[in-house]
Design brief:
508 residues, alpha/beta, Rossmann fold, Alpha-Beta Plaits, 4 domains, six-stranded mixed beta sheet, four-stranded parallel beta sheet, 20 helices, 42% helix, 21% strand
Amino acid sequence: MTQQYIEKILTAPVYDVAIETPLDNMPRLSKRLGQRILCKREDLQPVFSFKCRGAYNKMYHLNSEERARGVICSSAGNHAQGVALSASKLGIMATIVMPGTTPAIKVDAVRRLGGQWVNVVLHGDFYDEASQHAQNLQKEGGLTYIHPFDDPDTIAGQGTIGLELLRQYPRPIDAIFAPIGGGGLMAGMALLIKALRPDIKLIGVEPDDAASMTHAVRHGERTTLDHVGIFADGVAVKQPGEHTYEIIRELVDDFVTVSTDETCAAMKDLFDDTRAIAEPSGALATAGLKKWAAQQDKKDLTLISVVSGANVNFDRLRYVAERAEIGEQREALLAVTIPERPGTFLKFCQLIGDLPVTEFNYRYQDAQQAQIFVGIQLNEGKQQLNSILETLSANGYEAENLTDNELAKLHLRYMIGGAGNGIDNERLFRFGFPERPGALLYFLQTLGAHFNISLFHYRNHGSDYGRVLCGIQSDDAASLEQHLERIGYEYEEETQNPAYRRFLQPSR
């Protein structure tokens, strides 16, 4: 199997549409970690991601009958652009099915790249709905389905990145990091690199809320996750590919999972060192590299990450900038109970020393005490944070660390008003709303008049899904949950979240 793949990789004509991307040094990050860090700049491809390699290689190898019938794929972004560019180059009609929630900038890019050779079909609110519709159209029209990752020719096309990388850096390499969604990129690279340089460690990186390959390999079978996070949408895959799973299980040495905040911090590192503006999945490998490197005793290792793409909405960068400081452990978010009397804020600031307060949110609670939500800039990470918490506790301030609390970071820090009065049976939920007209109306109509909404907060984060925090009054738990399931939006209950209990939960 490996020999056949190597031949496919060595003969893949990807440079009809792709370029050989540079291998850039990251001097600032290298100095900070005490390692030699480089990054492979696949964000510089004509479609701003590596996906054009695999899509073109697959479509190039279609026979004349398959080309005449045309191809189809389903994608919300990078794969769609790769197929569109390949269709235009090869003169093959392509139907590309995208969710109706796909941002206009991505839809327009697909149409621009494909021109007369591409028909874009918008269907459904979610990728799974678009994928199913594409499969139905494929059967009806006898079209060839261009899989985004689980196809030998696609895998071989992505493997050309590994060939370039080894040629560009013939010196010793300790580890190479690549993002994993369905696994096409890592599988292709692993086949080539392990055949030529088996001494190099290969480490796959996934979001901690979408680690389908890590889960599958560790459980010994291709399992399907119930839910996946949507921040790094380029790797938000519930089940890894069949071909890619077998390759990665055999050849990849280790896996690292990273948080949203760690990914945002890696996006900032890439910008600081190379001025690259990577998409979240594009920065994933760098985030994993940083996390892995921090756990190593040995220094001066040569570590390389693949920057897989740069298709990010500009308005999403505001959210990224906010989370990057937390991802680098340069900001802490605390909930602190302080006495309700003059001078307590001054004393609080004196206790934390010269560290800047990045934000301070306060609402009167009662005559005895107040709850404050405060951001503090850190210089020395977790050790310094632990020292601050100990100092506050020793001086009678009850403090809770909310730095890793998603409700606090996504919603609470942007809300005003505090806890309500006279609100009974309130339950709190976080929802993912598709970013399309009518999403809220559909939510309200399906919920019906049976329940009262007692709290609502929405903030646009520049992605395909909006984050919504909603309080719902109900004394019939079973009925409420039936209505929520009928709506079909992903949700998570937060009624027991300490941030809610401190700041928003109605007084009894």
